């Protein structure tokens, strides 16, 4: 039986060609983390390459309850109690420390939901709620939606890789503007997360680069 997701995406012949070339979608939509953990990981990795980001977040997680580089990170009340020097030793800049403390305080106040609470909120509701936090933009929340909460219909139109992949799929001279990409991909709802995954894969074709652990 043909995968209904593949059938849905293959309504576009150009996308169908990319799917045949790349193969089945291997999007991992649930990393098992709490939203709080995922936001800290995202802040730790801002403006850094994958290996450096993982190293810094791993040092933070060593301060957590499991004392393991794989997590979880320190609980909000514990993180808030750490002196600046402790967090700086993890490789966190002053701005990242401020952003992480803001996320920790927001978790204590209930603004950052648990996974269970997040299940009751729509994608856009979560985006509008979390972008109020320092250091947390729309793209960051979209990655949380896709890779932590497993939401199937997210199209991160501001992502350079997604835009570049769509340009290549459609054989465009230049990458589409975010608003155009959003309108052009509406017809793929409710499977736009998978479409974004294929865009990433197409954008990476021919490049010798380390696997992006976030986008799979």
TrEMBL record:
**What's in the keyword line of the UniProt record?**
DNA damage, DNA repair
Q: Which reaction does it catalyse?
A: Hydrolysis of alkylated DNA, releasing 3-methyladenine, 3-methylguanine, 7-methylguanine and 7-methyladenine
Enumerate the InterPro entries for this protein.
Alkylbase_DNA_Glycosylase/TA (IPR051912), Alkylbase_DNA_glycsylse_CS (IPR000035), DNA_glycosylase (IPR011257), HhH-GPD_domain (IPR003265)
Q: Matching SMART domains, A to Z? A: ENDO3c
Segment forming the signal sequence: none
Where would I find the HhH-GPD domain in this sequence? 44-204
Query: Which CDD domains does UniProt cross-reference here?
Result: ENDO3c
Q: Which family does it belong to?
A: Belongs to the alkylbase DNA glycosidase AlkA family.
Q: Which protein, by its recorded name, is this?
A: DNA-3-methyladenine glycosylase II
> What organism does the UniProt record list as the source?
Gluconobacter japonicus
